[in-house]
């Protein structure tokens, strides 16, 4: 009865090329996500050699904007004729 039991490890087939590609692609994607999260969390110090940006003149930076009627405030159609 003890000789009937097979305790050898099951045969696992070798991974195919596409399975390997998927595995390494997932690893690269995870590393990229970790880098992106660390870039958000860890601030990058500004270098002292960089020249400060010149403040823009307020009058020059403001441009008149054209008034665009919004979709909710359309002019009502006149149903009656003007006499």
Automatic annotation (TrEMBL):
Bias regions of kind Basic residues — which residues? 73-83
What Pfam family does this protein match (any one)?
UPF0239
Which keywords does this Swiss-Prot/TrEMBL entry list?
Answer: Membrane, Transmembrane, Transmembrane helix
List the InterPro entries. Answer: UPF0239
Question: Does this UniProt record's set of keywords contain Cytoplasm?
Answer: no
The UniProt annotation puts the region (Disordered) at: 49-83
User: What is the annotated localization of this protein?
Assistant: Membrane
- Renumbered to this chain, the Basic and acidic residues biased-composition regions fall at 53-62
Q: What is its main location?
A: membrane
Q: Which residues cross the membrane?
A: 21-42
Its record classes its membrane topology as: Single-pass membrane protein
Task: Name a GO CC annotation attached to this entry.
Answer: membrane
Family membership, please give it. Belongs to the UPF0239 family.
Return the protein name.
Mannosidase beta like
To which species is this protein native? Oryctolagus cuniculus (Rabbit)
